[in-house]
Design a protein that fits this description.
Length: about 100
């Protein structure tokens, strides 16, 4: 298998893991303001773990490191944006409960 296909399979695995964690964060927090804030901060806190794990796993297949770094950067940006969206959605729930 070529290096590009191996990096693509790692990217698909990272997206599947992201989807599972996102589903658990949203479904377990429900419409609770405090739980949603905690879920958003957890997403922001696990971003470095996802970044370094993706770099370590992808660097096995990509010896130069540019593909592994790019892949890890994309995954980290997705996690950061999702954490911010979860935090903003908790503020939306607070506004909806007040009015």
């Amino acid at each position: 298998m070529s290096d590009g296909m191996q990096l693509f399979s790692i990217f698909i695995f990272v997206l599947a893991l992201f989807s599972i964690i996102n589903f658990l964060a949203i479904s377990l927090s429900g419409h609770n303001f405090k739980r949603r804030i905690i879920a958003g901060f957890i997403f922001l806190l696990i971003t470095p773990i996802v970044f370094f794990a993706t770099v370590a796993f992808a660097s096995i297949f990509d010896k130069a490191g540019f593909g592994a770094g790019g892949l890890a950067f994309i995954a980290a940006i997705i996690y950061i944006l999702n954490g911010i969206v979860i935090l903003l959605s908790s503020l939306f729930f607070l506004k909806r409960d007040i009015t």
